[in-house]
Amino acid sequence: MVRRVAENFEQQKKVHSAIIKIVAGMSLVMILPAVLIIGVIVSNGKPLEVGKKAPEFGLLDQNNNYVKNSDYKGDWCLIYFYNGNRPDGLMQARRIKAHYDELHKLHLRLVGISYESVPEHHDFAEQLHLTHDLLSDPEGNVISEYSAHTSMNQMAKNIGYLLDQQGIIKKVYLELEPESQLLAVEKDMRELASL
Hints:
Blueprint: H1 2-42, E1 58-61, E2 66-68, E3 76-81, H2 87-105, E4 108-114, H3 118-128, E5 133-136, H4 141-145, E6 159-163, E7 169-174, H5 178-192
Parallel strand pairs: 3-4, 4-5
Antiparallel strand pairs: 1-2, 1-5, 3-6, 6-7
Helix pairs in contact: 2-5
């Protein structure tokens, strides 16, 4: 009887060990691809470098006006990338609206860029009462040039660039929650614009 209990115990240990190996293997097979996919989506290109001139662009705004980033020379400017009417884009727009007066007092121009069409930007701006420029980049050329593209179709990375009056990148805000990003921008503007 004692020998039989010992054999059962040894067999149970082997079964238990085999189950752990199977579960660990399955977890690896399921988790590893997810981690790789998320890594590609999130870090698809390095942000532009601080101290460099921001790349030139020209896009249509929500009112169908052709806007170039050289139009902002002489002003501090935050160029941010967002995802339109998706939940993260809506939250970001609401936070910008809440901070708009403070950012305006700091003499900061805001420029949002996304894949959405001009009519979609127009409706989005009207719906949320946004008065700053929302630029349409349906082909994603500017989004890619500013390293805001992801491997997911028509999705921009949450990234913002603070430019000085000469169009030089002074700060990069990467993957911050909208509230944290705007608070960081306000803090940086108080420090940098006073120099």
